[in-house]
Amino acid sequence: MKDDFVSKVRFAIVEHAMLRGEKRVCAALSGGADSVSLLRALCELSGELGAEITACHLNHGLRGEESDGDERFCRDLCERLDVPFYSKKIAVSELAQKHESTEEAARRARYAFFEEALEHFGSGVLATAHNANDNAETVLLNITRGTGLLGLCGIPPVRELGASGKLVIRPLLYITRGEVEEYLGGLGQRYVTDKTNLLEDYTRNKLRRRVLPELENINPSVAGVIGRMTDNLREDSVFLEELADKALIETRKGMGWNAASISALPQPIKARVVRKILLQGGVEPSALRIDTAISLLSERSARFNPCKNRYFTIRKGICFVEKVEQHYRNKL
Question: Which pLDDT score, from 0 to 100, does residue 247 have?
Answer without folding.
Answer: 98
